[in-house]
Amino acid sequence: MQSSTTPLKPDVSRREFLKTSGGVALMITGTGLMPLSSVTSNANAATATSQNAITAWVELLKDGSLTIYSPATEMGQGSMSALPIIFAEEMDADWDKVTVKFAPQQPEVYGRPLFRGVSQMTFGSTGVMSYFPLLRQAGAQARYILLASVAKHLSVDSSELTTSPNKVIHASTGREFDYGDIVSFLDVPNVIPTIPDDQLKNPEDFRLIGKNLPRVDIPQKVNGTAQFAIDVRLPNMLYGMVERGRVHGAKPTLKNESAITSMDGVVGVYRLEHGVAVLAETMGSVFPAKHKLDIEWSDSKPTGFNSADAFALYEKILDGNDVPENIDGVESSKVLIDDGDLETTKANAAKTYRIDYKNDYVYHAQQEPLNSVVQVSADLSSAEVWIGTQNGTGAQEDIAKALGIAASKVTIHQQYLGGGFGRRTLSDYGVEAALLAKEVAPRPVKLTWSREDDLHYGMYRPATLQRMEAYTDEAGNLTGFSHIVVGDGERLIADGTDIHGYNVPNHKAEMHIVPHGIRVKHWRAVGHGTNKFAIECMIDEIAADQNIDPVEYRKRLLEPRALATLEKVASMANWGETLPEGRAQGVAFLERSNTLSSGICEISFDKDSGKIKVHHFWSAHDAGIVIQPDSVLAQIEGGVVMGLSSALDEQITIVNGEVQQSNFNDYPIIRMHELPESIETEILKSSAPPAGLGESSTPLVACAIANAFFTLTGKHLRHLPFTPDRVKQALST
Amino acid sequence: MVAYTIDITCQKIDITINNSHLLEAENMALVKININDKDEQIDVPEETHLLWAIREHLGLTGTKFSCGIGACGACTVHIDGVATRSCITPISAVTDGQKITTIEGLSSDNSHPLQEAWIEAQVPQCGYCQSGQIMHAAGLLNENSKPSKQEIVKHMSANLCRCGTYMRIAKAVEIAATSDEK
Ligand code: FES
Ligand code: FES
Questions:
Q1: Domain A229-300+370-448 has CATH 3.30.365.10
Q2: Which of A157, B4, B75, B96 sits CB 3.0–4.6 Å from B87 for a disulfide?
Q3: Minimum distance, in Å, between the CA of residue A605 and any CA atom of chain B
Q4: Chain B residues touching A672 at Cβ < 8 A
Q5: A648-701 pLDDT tens trace
Q6: A369: cis peptide before it, omega within 30°?
Q7: Which ligand 1 atom is at minimum distance from the Cα of B71?
C-alpha cells in the first residue's frame, strides 16, 4: 500500500551519493524528501552536498563503521542520541559501530520538516517529534540502497534479501554481506522510492527505539572533554567582555577610554550600540579592564519602570471602562482563541467565578554563561563561529548581517550547549563577538559574559496578570471560561492559553500587550508555566466551591488519552488516602508540545518561616512513541527540579528600570537538600507519533503546589513565585 | 570585596571574596604549580584566579566558569585532595608543593569509580556543571569513603545544576561509594 498522505518528492537522484576515500556518504534525504514546490531549495541542496562529501545523514566506511549526523543541537535533552537512533533503527545499523556528529548548518539538507530550508532550530521540545518521520524514511532508504546493491551484485531479487544489524543476508544461499563490504560494489539505483509506511519497521520489532541506549555525549561529560564554546582556544586569540546597560536599551558614553587602553594587556576599547567592549590578551586582564570602565548611561524605555507596579497597571487595563487599547502603555490587543459561544454561556451561567493570577519575571540561569568565539578573515569576507546555539541558522544569518557578508560566508561550528532553556535561540552573544572580531581581524575573539552580565542583561520570562472567568451550570459543570492575559512579550504570553486535553465547549482567550522595554524571551515551556498555572488553579478553586474532589472534577472534563495520565498519576500518588498531619496533595494536568501530562505533589510548610517543602512529586505522561525512555525520565526529573526552583524561589525584580539581582547569591537556584524525597515518573505506553517531552513537567509543578497549599490551608497562592513572604501573607488573609 | 551569604544545606554560609586585585593586576610573575602530577610554569599576574590559569593558560578546559563568586561549584578542583573553588582562589594562594587535580587528572580513561557511576546512572544533561560535581564528590570520598545518604546530600548541596540532575548525582555518589563492595 502506498502512503498517499505524503507531500514529499518520492525519489532521490543518483548524484547525491558521493564516494569518499574510505567509504560512501549517502545523501539519502538531501533532496529526496524535499517538498515538491521547493525547486530552488533543491538546487541549494545539490550545491551544498556537492561541496562537501560529509553533508549527508550517514557516512559508511569499508570497515562497517558509520557516522550519523544529528541535525539538532545538544543541550542535555538527548536529541543527539535520539535522532540518530531513529535513523539507525530503520537502516538496521549496528549501533555499536555508529559515531554521531553534529550536522552542519544546511537547512536545505537538515532542516526540520516544518521549517525545511529555513531553520534547524532546536526549540519547544520538538526535535524528536518533528524529525521522527523524516529520519525513519531516510534510514529506510539507506537500507533500500544497500539491499538493491546486493541484489544487483548477486543477480537476485531484493525481496530475497533481509537485514540484521549491519548485514544484508541472502537466506537461501546463506550469503551475508557486512554493510562495510557493500561499499566496494555499492550501486545506487536511479530512483529511490519513498518507502511506504507499511514497509517501515513494525514498532514491535524495534531493537533500538524504546530501549535504553547510553547517551552518546555522556562519556565526554564525565571527564571534561565535552567541548562547549567557552572551551574553544585558538592561536593568537583575544579575550573580550562587554559592559551593558543595567537598564536595558540604555546607550553608553565612555568617560575614561585612555585609562582603560593604557591598562596592561588591553588591546582596545570598542563602542557597541548597547555597551562598551574591551579586548585584552588574557582573561586575567579583560576582567579588571571591564571593571574599571566608567560609563554614563542614557535613559531608555525601562527608566522609571518598577516591576512591582506593573500589576496595578495591568489591573487598571482590565478593570477600566475604557477599551484597553486606549490606555497608556497598551500596544495592542488580540483575541487568541474564541471557541463556542462564550457570551451565551456567560448569560446562562448558574455561577460565575472570577480570579486573577500573577507571576514575576524569571531568568534562565543556564549554567554556561553566554559566550562565543569568532574569527573574521583578514579581508573581512568570511567568518568562522564557534557557538552553542539552539538556532544555528539564525546565528549564521544574524552574524552575516552584522558583518555585511552573505550567510554562506559564515561557518557555524556547533558546540555543546551548557543549557539552553530557550535563551539560546537568539544569538546576540555571537553577533557581539563577530563585531569585535571584525575590528581585530584575523585575530580570533572569545567573548565571555560574566554571570552578572548574563543575569543583568538577561531575557526573562515576562511578568503577567491572568484574569480568569469561569462559568458553571446548575450541576456545577464547567461550561466555559475566559482567559485574559496582560503583559509583555506577545507570543510568549499567548502560548499555553489553550486548553488542549480538556473538553470545555466554550473558551475564549485574549491578550493585551504592554511593552516595558525589558528584554523577554522563551523560558522552558514558555507561556505554559504561567497560563497553565492560572487555568489549573482556577479549576481547583471551582471544584472546591462545588464540593467536588479536584481529580474527580478533572475526570469529567478530560479527553480519553489525557484522562489516562490523570488516572495513572492518581494511583501512583494514592490520591485520596489519608496523609500525615500537616501534609496535602495537589494535582495538575496540561498539554505541551503534544505530550499529555498529569502531576501530583505532596507538600507541607513551616508556619514560622513560610517555607514550603515539597515531599513527593509524581507525574504520568503520554508522549507517543518514546525513543529513549531513560533520557525522557531524566528530562522530566530535571524539569520538575526547575519547576520547583522557579515556583518557590526565583524572581527577577526591577526598580527604576534596573534589574536588582546579580548572581546566584541573590538569584537562588534550588539545591540538592531542597529536593523532594522522591520524584516518580511513569510514561504511558503509546503508539501515537512521538511528542515533545523536554518541557512537560516544569509547568506542572507550580499548579500542583498551589493546589496542595489550598487543600492544606484553604488559602490561595495566586502570585508566582511562592516566596516565604507571600506564603505568610496568604496565611494572614 | 564582595560579601554575601548563601544558603547551603539549611545553613547560612558567609562568603567574602577579596577581589581588590581586579583593579590592580599588574604584577606579572612566573608561577610554578603542580597540576595533575605535572610541574607547570605559567607567566600570569600573581592575582589571577586559579580557574583562568587552568583553563586559558594550561588549556585544561574541563574545569568550568559559571558564577565566579564561589556560589555554584562549576570550577571545583582539588588542592591536595580537598575540593576547592578555583574561581575565587588566587593563584598566589597555591603554595609550593601543593598538588592540584582537575577533572582531567581524575583518570585517563573514565575509570575512576565516580566516572563509572556517573555513566551508569546517566547523570549529565547539558554536562556543564558535571566536572565540578564529580570533583566535589571526589572531595567527599577522599574525606569519607562511606558517606551516608544524608552526608552526600549535605555535601553535594554546595554545587548547582540548572538541568536538575540532583537525583542522579546522589545516586551516582552512592554507587561509587559502594563500588568496592560489588
Ligand atoms: S564558578 Fe566558581 S563557584 Fe561558580
Ligand atoms: S547538567 Fe546542565 S547544569 Fe548540570
A1: yes
A2: B75
A3: 15
A4: 153, 156-157, 159, 166, 169-170
A5: 999 999 999 999 999 999 999 999 999 999 999 999 999 899 988 889 999 999
A6: no
A7: 3
Ramachandran bin of A547, using left for φ above 0, alpha for ψ from -120 to 50, beta for the remaining angles: left
The per-residue pLDDT of chain A, averaged, comes to 89
Q: What is the pTM of this model?
A: 0.92
Size of interface A-B (CB pairs under 8 A): 207
Least confident of A30-34, A103-107, A241-245, A726-730: A30-34
- Nearest CA to A78 out of A682, A636, A593, A461 is that of A636
Q: Are A229-300+370-448 and A308-362+460-731 in the same CATH fold?
A: yes
* Structure confidence by residue, pLDDT tens digits, A313-360: 999 999 977 777 788 889 999 999 999 999 999 999 999 999 999 999
**Which of B6, B128, B148 to probe the A interface (max A CBs under 10 A)?**
B128
Interface of B with A in 46-65 (CB under 8 A): 48-49, 52, 55-57, 59-65
> Which bound ligand lies closest to the C-alpha atom of B159?
1
Residue A33 has pLDDT above 60, yes or no: no
Chain A interface includes B167 (CB < 8 A): yes
Q: What is the pLDDT of residues A272-285, one digit of tens each?
A: 999 999 999 999 89
- Among protein residues, the one whose CA lies closest to atom 3 of ligand 1: B70
Which residues share a beta bridge with A178?
A167
Q: How far is the CA of B124 from the centre of ligand 2 (A)?
A: 6
Q: Class assignment of domain A308-362+460-731?
A: alpha beta
CA dihedral A216, A217, A221, A223 (to 10 degrees): 50
Amino acid at A116: R
**Cβ of B64 and A230 within 8 Å?**
yes
ipTM surpasses cut 0.85? yes
- On whether the CB atoms of residues A90 and A201 are closer than 8 A, the answer is yes
Complete edge-to-edge strand list for the sheet that includes strand A719-720: A332-339, A506-513, A478-487, A464-472, A351-359, A719-720
What class, spelled out in words, does domain A2-221 have in CATH? alpha beta
What type of residue sits at position A189? Answer: P
In chain A, domain spans: 2-221, 229-300+370-448, 308-362+460-731
* CA atoms in the 13 A half-sphere facing the CB of A539: 29
Domains of chain B with CATH codes: 6-105 (3.10.20.30), 107-181 (1.10.150.120)
Rounded to whole angstroms, the Cα distance separating A350 from A348 reads: 6
